[in-house]
Amino acid sequence: DSGVTQTPKHLITATGQRVTLRCSPRSGDLSVYWYQQSLDQGLQFLIHYYNGEERAKGNILERFSAQQFPDLHSELNLSSLELGDSALYFCASSAAVGGGTEAFFGQGTRLTVV
Amino acid sequence: GESVGLHLPTLSVQEGDNSIINCAYSNSASDYFIWYKQESGKGPQFIIDIRSNMDKRQGQRVTVLLNKTVKHLSLQIAATQPGDSAVYFCAENGGSARQLTFGSGTQLTVLP
């Protein structure tokens, strides 16, 4: 158990809909990262938050947004969903503000858009 | 842009043999590298890391080698076991805010 909790584990929704994925980082970790993993693909970095502030954006679509709350949990919002958004979405947390330490991953949310 | 890439998408080894998984990186500013193991349906799990001031680091049955001259990283698994079957990703902190950037992964299959 990495200590990172993601909910829900599975999500099935229709095109055009909006969903929210939730991540609780390891106790004490201030950094939260979101990654997308499509079928047979690597992990694509989406966005990084540190202590409530956005630190970096990767290949995140404008239809997607995220935030980190004062209690350090984070939410990834996906709107106007398309079939191609079907993927595994992972959250990772680390103690550092930058990538100089190990990041711990949650078990992911599998999103299926039908 | 900068990227991390893997030389082989799949690797099959006999149980008990040693495995070597390779990774090339292109961001010379990266100074921290990690190997992750991902089993089917699970999140990536940390295996071992190495900083750029080292060229070798050993863990339990695993060794990571870093060659900064040719920007190459490798993961060696000794006495490979069936439980080692998984996808292995290398990652570097080469992102714009030094976030981890991942390679495309190598599927390791351990044959009985």
Describe this structure in words.
The complex is a heterodimer of chains A (114) and B (112). By secondary structure, chain A is mainly beta. Helix content of chain A is 0%, strand content 50%. In chain A, the strands form two sheets. In chain A, strands 2, 4, 5, 6, 9, 10 and 11 form a seven-stranded mixed beta sheet that branches. In chain A, a hairpin with a 2-residue loop joins strand 5 and strand 6 (53-57). Chain B has 112 residues and is mainly beta. Chain B is 0% helix and 53% strand. Chain B is built from no helices and eleven strands. In chain B, strands 2, 4, 5, 9, 10 and 11 form a six-stranded mixed beta sheet that branches. In chain B, strands 1-3-8-7-6 form a five-stranded antiparallel beta sheet, with no helix packed on it. In chain B, a hairpin with a 4-residue loop joins strand 7 (62-67) and strand 8. The mean pLDDT of chain B is 89. Chains A and B meet through strand 5 and strand 10 of A and strand 4, strand 5, strand 9 and strand 10 of B.
What's the short story on this structure?
Chain A is mostly beta strands and 114 residues long. Helices cover 0% and strands 50% of the residues of chain A.
Class computed from helices, strands and strand pairing of chain B: mainly beta
Run of helices and strands of chain A: EEEEEEEEEEE
Biggest sheet of chain B: strands, sense, closure?
6 strands, mixed
Strand content of chain A: over 45%
The shape of chain B is globular
Instruction: Give unreliable regions of chain B as ranges.
Output: none
Helix content of chain A: under 10%
How far apart, in Å, are the first and last alpha carbons of chain A? 31 Å
Structural class of chain A: mainly beta
Molecular shape of chain A: globular
Main beta sheet of chain A: strand number and arrangement?
7 strands, mixed
Give the oligomeric state of the chains in this entry, treating copies of one chain as homo and distinct chains as hetero. Answer: heterodimer
Mean pLDDT of chain B: 89
**Mean pLDDT over the full residue set of chain A:** 93
Distance between the termini of chain B: 40 Å
Q: What is the percentage of strand-forming residues of chain B?
A: over 45%
SS elements, strand count of chain A: 11
Radius of gyration of chain B: 13 Å
